[in-house]
């Protein structure tokens, strides 16, 4: 390990499937082979070849990640059986844990995913790891690009990306990434019309001081929002038509999301820098839909609806984050060592009002494949008046903590990493408008929570390293989640991991293998007796291994291949099928892409992706999705350096399978059938 590692830059990786360094682990760029943790990166080139448009698209392609759709607007992400936390440019971001509508992928330069406990920099968070969303920054040279996309299900999309220096000295730079999309879905009735605008301004105030401010805004209007299918009368999955949508056409879900980031970076002496960053997130939403009152008949698909089953709700989600840290190296005993010291703060507030429905209309013998016969409740029958039974809640939580990471170069080939964080976490809830305002009730109050970290990396050769690490995490559960309307005991856990990492062809190809073991207590799971609420488990042990390779094997041939094996053991007999709900035992993901370099085929490109999963368990022994395999492909042609046309195909074999099976009345999601997307890409 030499001091040169800290000078790595992760920018300019857009034409590769891997990055020379990432920032998710230590706030500054560190080579993948020097990090004692499992990490994957989705680069711009990988996004482009697979035509990824959303965070869900990207996470589906990352090794070891299980995607659990939650609605038309958002998904939840799991690794090694635990939920992931999000961060923005390395700053913890509570908004990513609120089940919110997520921003489109167009505003991000790359996605870094660190699997496993990440409490060192995050404090409270998901034990599955952290998804670091790295936003686009301005370049010093003018560049412009845009895409026009047409796809299955009436999918029309246009986006553009422009970066430009604003003065002759190029100390003031601007970048914008904007899009408009109008599309249907494979399930009936649903329609989306959305736009997103992102702008970022970067100013070198002095040669050693840089200020950056960005703002993103997204508007989504979704007709007939989709939350998955109910189980049948025999508590089995519905296979009578994957395009069924329990939400009638009049349902809606509207979101307005805004996020502002401001940062100031000051270079000190040598390679020392200090950075202060603030993130401000605000979202408002308004939703109303109806869902079945009885499970659909397993043979006929007939169910019933009542107006009282309508779910009108509206609310706001806000998050405020601050992060101040210093990084740099120092010499001691003729060795170069690296130090990170910091403090971060994160708060989030949610308010939700649940409307009441005064109408009592009933609909019997409704086919789950034709819910358009269910009409909206009469005008005036949906009310947000407390006297009619409308309710509301406020939830307020915050955490702050001091953290540090010391990377000691013990010998020329051996480094030792010592780290830790001391955190304070508090949460309180209350009844709020339209309910009569009630007193605040504390649901979590954690003082001095220590999350230690210990790691080591040994350089076997200049290209190959061995590593081992110990990490811990704690995860408070937000909200009144139990049947008794109480908070859940915070989840706590730790992880040990060891493996090998290799970097070849000057960083163009990276591979890694890992063995891991995770132990935790108090993980939230669905209450089998009250399925809208949660209970906590006893001790859980998860262990397994994974391997991945990303990058360029030969000129023009890029690959991304990964395999994960996970074994779960839980002590609570009430949740014996718990393991496969969040992560299957086997996951294999692969993507191989080739660009013809010369000859008559020059300009032609084609790729294929094969993913395979073992059984996915649901909430019941009768809701099991058997093992399955899917196939995606792409073929493209580059006319010149400015223009390219490509055609992506998804689920090429038209496999009928469930991507998620975990609920009684919803959260059972069939995957989309075969679909196509043609994209014309231009750049200058």
From TrEMBL:
Cellular localisation: Cell outer membrane
UniProt keyword annotations, A-Z: Cell outer membrane, Membrane, Receptor, TonB box, Transmembrane, Transmembrane beta strand, Transport
Membrane topology type: Multi-pass membrane protein
Domain TonB-dependent receptor-like beta-barrel per the UniProt entry, residue ranges: 228-652
Stored PROSITE patterns: TONB_DEPENDENT_REC_3
Listed CDD domains: ligand_gated_channel
Entries under InterPro entries matching the protein: Beta-barrel_TonB, Beta-barrel_TonB_sf, Plug_dom, Plug_dom_sf, TonB-dep_rcpt-like, TonB_sidphr_rcpt
Pfam families: Plug (PF07715), TonB_dep_Rec_b-barrel (PF00593)
Entry keyword ATP-binding: no
Ranges of residues in domain TonB-dependent receptor plug: 32-130
Similarity remark: Belongs to the TonB-dependent receptor family.
PANTHER family linked to this entry: FERRICHROME IRON RECEPTOR-RELATED, HYDROXAMATE SIDEROPHORE RECEPTOR FHUE
Name this polypeptide is given: Amino acid ABC transporter substrate-binding protein
């Amino acid at each position: 390990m030499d001091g040169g590692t800290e000078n790595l830059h992760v920018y300019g990786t857009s034409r590769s499937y891997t990055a020379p360094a990432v920032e998710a682990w230590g706030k500054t760029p560190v080579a993948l082979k020097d990090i004692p943790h499992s990490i994957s990166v989705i680069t711009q080139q990988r996004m482009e070849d697979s035509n990824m448009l959303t965070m869900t698209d990207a996470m589906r392609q990352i090794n070891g990640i299980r995607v659990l759709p939650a609605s038309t607007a958002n998904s939840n992400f799991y690794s090694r059986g635990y939920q992931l936390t999000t961060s923005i440019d390395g700053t913890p971001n509570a908004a990513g844990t609120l089940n919110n509508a997520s921003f489109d992928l167009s505003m991000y330069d790359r996605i870094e995913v660190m699997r496993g406990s990440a409490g060192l920099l995050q404090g409270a968070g998901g034990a599955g790891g952290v998804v670091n969303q790295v936003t686009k920054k301005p370049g010093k040279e003018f560049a412009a690009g845009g895409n026009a996309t047409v796809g299955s299900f009436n999918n029309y999309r246009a986006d553009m990306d422009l970066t430009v220096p604003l003065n002759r000295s190029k100390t003031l730079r601007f970048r914008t990434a904007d899009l408009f999309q109008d599309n249907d879905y494979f399930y009936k009735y649903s329609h989306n019309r959305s736009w997103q605008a992102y702008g970022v301004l970067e100013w070198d105030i002095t040669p050693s001081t840089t200020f950056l401010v960005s703002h993103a805004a997204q508007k989504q209007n979704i007709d007939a929002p989709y939350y998955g299918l109910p189980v049948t009368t025999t508590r089995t999955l519905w296979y009578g038509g994957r395009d069924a949508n329990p939400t009638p056409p009049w349902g809606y879900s509207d979101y307005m999301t805004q996020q502002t980031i401001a940062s100031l970076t000051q270079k000190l002496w040598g390679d020392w820098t200090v950075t202060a960053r603030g993130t401000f997130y605000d979202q408002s939403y308004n939703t109303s839909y109806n869902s079945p009152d009885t499970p659909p008949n397993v043979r006929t698909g007939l169910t019933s609806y009542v107006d009282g089953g309508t779910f009108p709700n509206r609310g706001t989600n806000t998050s405020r984050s601050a992060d101040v840290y210093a990084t740099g190296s120092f010499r001691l005993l003729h060795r170069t060592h690296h130090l990170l010291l910091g403090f971060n703060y994160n708060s989030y507030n949610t308010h939700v009002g649940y409307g009441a429905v005064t109408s009592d209309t009933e609909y019997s013998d409704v086919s789950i494949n034709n819910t358009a016969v269910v009409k909206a409740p009469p005008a005036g029958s949906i009310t947000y008046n407390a006297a009619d039974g409308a309710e509301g809640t406020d939830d307020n939580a915050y955490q702050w903590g001091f953290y540090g990471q010391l990377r000691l170069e013990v010998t020329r080939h051996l480094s030792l990493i010592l780290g830790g964080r001391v955190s304070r976490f508090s949460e309180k809830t209350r009844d709020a408008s339209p309910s009569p305002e009630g007193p605040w009730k504390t649901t979590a109050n954690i003082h001095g929570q220590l999350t230690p970290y210990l790691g080591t990396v040994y350089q076997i050769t200049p290209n190959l390293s061995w590593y081992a690490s110990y990490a811990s995490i704690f995860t408070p559960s937000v909200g009144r989640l139990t049947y008794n309307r109480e908070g859940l005991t915070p989840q706590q856990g730790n992880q040990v991991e060891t493996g090998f990492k290799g970097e070849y062809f000057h960083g163009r190809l990276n591979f890694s293998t890992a063995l891991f073991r995770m132990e935790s207590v108090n993980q939230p799971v669905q209450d089998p007796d009250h399925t809208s609420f949660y209970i906590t488990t006893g001790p859980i042990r998860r262990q397994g291994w994974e391997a991945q390779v990303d990058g360029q094997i030969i000129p023009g041939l890029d690959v991304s291949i990964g395999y994960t094996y996970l074994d779960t053991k839980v002590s609570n007999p009430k949740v014996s099928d718990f393991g496969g709900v969040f992560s299957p035992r086997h996951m294999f993901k692969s993507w191989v892409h080739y660009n013809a370099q010369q000859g008559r085929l020059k300009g032609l490109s084609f790729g294929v992706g094969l993913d395979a999963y073992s059984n996915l368990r649901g909430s019941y022994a009768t809701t099991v999705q058997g093992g399955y395999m899917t196939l995606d492909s792409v073929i493209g042609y580059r006319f010149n350096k400015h223009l390219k046309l490509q055609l992506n195909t998804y689920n090429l074999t038209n496999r009928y399978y469930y991507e998620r099976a975990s609920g009684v009345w919803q959260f059972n999601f069939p995957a989309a059938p075969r679909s196509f997307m043609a994209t014309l890409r231009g750049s200058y």
